[in-house]
Amino acid sequence: MVQVPINYLAVLACMVASMVLGSVWYGPLFGKQWMAMMGMSPSSMPKQSMAKLYAIQAVGSLVMAFVLAHALVYASAYMQVSGAQAGLMVGFWNWLGFIAPVTLGSVLWEGKSWKLWFLNNGYYLVLLCSMGLILSLWK
C-alpha cells in the first residue's frame, strides 16, 4: 500500500481558514444578503448551541481539507505541477466537479435563487482554492 504524504498541520490550518472565511463571508461581507435570500432573520437562526454547530462544521471542514490534500497529491503527480498553481487548480476543479453541480439542486428543485447559489458557491470556490493554496505551499 502506498503511503500518501499528507501534512496534517496544513490540513488543520485549512480547517481554521474555513471557519475564519465562513465567519467573514456569512458575517460582515454577505451575512445580511444571505439571511434575506434564505428568508431568515437573526431571531430565526437555529436555537441549538452555536458551539455545537461550529464544532460539527469544523469537523466537516477538516474532512474536506483531508480529502483535498489527497486530491492535491494525486493531481500534482499526474499533471506534473506543484506549488500555488497546483493548489489553485485542485481547488477549482474540485469545486467545479463536485460542489457546483451538486448545489444546482437547490435552485432546480428547492426553489432557491440563483443569487443565493452564486453567493454560496462563491464561498466554496474561494474556500477550496484557499485550502489548495495552503496545502500546496505548506509541505
Helix content: over 70%
Q: How many independent structural domains?
A: 1
CA(first)-CA(last) distance: 21 Å
Strand content: under 5%
Taking pLDDT < 50 over at least 5 consecutive residues as the criterion, the unreliable ranges are none
Structural class assignment: mainly alpha
* Strand segment count: 0
Helical stretch tally: 5
Rg of Cα set: 16 Å
Compute the average pLDDT.
93
Give the SSE order as H and E letters: HHHHH
Largest sheet: none
What would the principal axes of the Cα set say about the shape? Answer: globular
Structural account:
- The structure is a single chain.
- The chain is mainly α and 139 residues long.
- It has one domain (8-137).
- It has five helices and no strands.
- The protein has helices spanning 8-29, 31-38, 50-79, 83-108, 114-137.
- Helix 3 (50-79) packs across helix 5 (114-137).
Name the features.
about 140 residues; globular
Task: Please give a quick description of this structure.
The chain is built from five helices and no strands.
Topology:
Blueprint (H helix, E strand, L loop, with lengths): L7 H22 L1 H8 L11 H30 L3 H26 L5 H24 L2
